[in-house]
């Protein structure tokens, strides 16, 4: 309450809290009175209280993301994709082409990342492109190719869902569904993807706060998805030397308030091949539970994001250096395969 709030005004606020069905508890102070509210479901009712006379401010003390927050779920969540886990204390490696361009290309790259220690294959069959004239993905044909790659390599795969009309179809093929940065706040899509009950890789919106990101995870979780992984892929800032600014600081901040695993996408954050390894190591150092990395053996021919794709040899270098860093941290990195 304002320092000069009158008794009648304080009583009015207490009465309103009770009308809303909650409990009001007054904490008188030397300068001002504070009224504690308990029993409310979320912080939405603050608008009813904020507009009452002599109310100074309404402060939420409970996390608005009840399912994604640590308050209600203190232990870390571990995502289980059968043979592979995300969030078990080690660093999981997801790698593959940005887009599925054809069967040969994807099978070749799947073999190469498997040989070098990847545990999960990535590849977009439906691509969200800035230009309508750019390659939009192979659609269901791309899903068939990814399924073939899984059969051949044993690698489970993650692929992006662009809209709720194709979400079910994609879930019939994929081991994990990706919601991209441009769709992080597409709430209709989040609800539909949540209902499918599959593990979800939720990429942080390019200008989303940590709280907004976790509220999007909350959409997925409140509709049925228990296994959500957050992905930091860089945010928009004034810096132009990289495609995005990798926000390393979000990793410990997220881990403090949420039990969900967080991985880093150093390819979409850097946008340039030369800085993918440094971004990866920064992510590992900051405590990420995994990486998702673009790899292409003919990046000059890639139909999407060739400039940020690591060549297979560079991917092997990343696995080698990353493994040394992980060893120092008492963690494993990818599989123990080396080439
Ligand atoms: C991707 O991973 O292929 C992608 C489109 O990423 P983002 O949504 O982070 O831009
Ligand atoms: Mn891409």
Account of the 3D structure:
It is a single chain. With 339 residues, the protein is α/β, with parallel strands linked by helices. It is 35% helix and 15% strand. Strand 1 (23-28) and strand 2 (33-38) form a beta hairpin. It is elongated, with a radius of gyration of 23 Å. The chain binds phosphoenolpyruvate and manganese (II) ion (MN). Phosphoenolpyruvate is lined by residues 98, 124, 128, 180-181, 203, 233, 265, 268.
How would you sum up the global shape? elongated
Secondary-structure element order, N to C: HEEHEEEHEHEHEHEHEHEHHEH
Q: Major sheet: order of its strands?
A: 5-6-7-8-9-10-11-12
Distance between the termini: 66 Å
Q: What structural category do the secondary elements indicate? A: alpha/beta
Query: Approximately how much beta-strand content do the residues carry?
Result: 15-25%
- Low-confidence segments, ≥5 residues, pLDDT <50? none
Number of helices: 11
CA-atom Rg in angstroms: 23 Å
| Bound molecule kinds, no repeats | phosphoenolpyruvate, manganese (II) ion
Number of strands: 12
Please give a quick description of this structure.
The protein has helices spanning 7-19, 46-50, 103-115, 140-153, 164-173, 187-195, 210-222, 250-257, 266-270, 276-285, 312-328, and strands at residues 23-28, 33-38, 79-81, 84-86, 92-96, 120-122, 157-160, 176-179, 200-203, 228-232, 262-264, 290-294. By secondary structure, the chain is α/β, with parallel strands linked by helices.
């Amino acid at each position: 309450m304002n320092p000069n709030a009158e008794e009648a005004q304080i009583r009015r606020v207490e009465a309103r809290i009770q009308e809303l069905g909650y409990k009001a508890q007054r904490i008188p102070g030397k300068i001002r009175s504070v009224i504690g509210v308990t029993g409310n479901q979320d912080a939405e009712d603050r608008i009813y209280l904020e507009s009452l006379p002599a109310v100074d401010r309404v402060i939420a003390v409970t996390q608005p993301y009840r399912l994604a927050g640590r308050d209600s779920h203190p232990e870390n969540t571990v995502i289980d994709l059968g043979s592979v886990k995300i969030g078990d204390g080690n660093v999981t490696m997801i790698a593959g082409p940005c887009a599925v361009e054809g069967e040969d290309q994807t099978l070749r790259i799947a073999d190469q990342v498997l040989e070098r220690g990847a545990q999960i294959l990535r590849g977009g069959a439906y691509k969200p492109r800035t230009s309508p004239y750019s390659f939009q993905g192979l659609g269901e044909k791309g899903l068939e190719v990814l399924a073939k790659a899984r059969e051949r390599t044993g690698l489970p795969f993650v692929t992006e869902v662009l809209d709720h009309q194709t979400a079910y179809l994609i879930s019939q093929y994929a081991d994990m569904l990706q919601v991209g940065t441009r769709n992080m706040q597409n709430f209709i899509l989040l609800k539909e993807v949540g209902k499918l009950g599959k593990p979800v890789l939720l990429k942080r919106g390019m200008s989303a706060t940590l709280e907004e990101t976790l509220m999007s995870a909350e959409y997925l979780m409140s509709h049925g998805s228990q296994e959500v992984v957050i992905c930091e892929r860089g945010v928009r800032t004034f810096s132009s030397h990289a495609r995005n600014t990798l926000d390393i600081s979000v990793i410990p901040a997220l881990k403090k308030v949420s039990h969900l695993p967080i991985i880093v996408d150093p390819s979409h954050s850097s946008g340039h091949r030369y800085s993918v390894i440094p971004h990866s190591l920064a992510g590992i150092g900051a405590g990420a539970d995994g990486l998702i990395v673009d790899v292409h053996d003919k990046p000059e021919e890639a139909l999407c994001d060739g400039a940020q794709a690591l060549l297979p040899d560079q991917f092997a270098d990343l696995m080698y250096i990353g493994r040394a860093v992980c060893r120092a941290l008492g963690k494993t990195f990818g599989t123990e395969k080396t080439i």
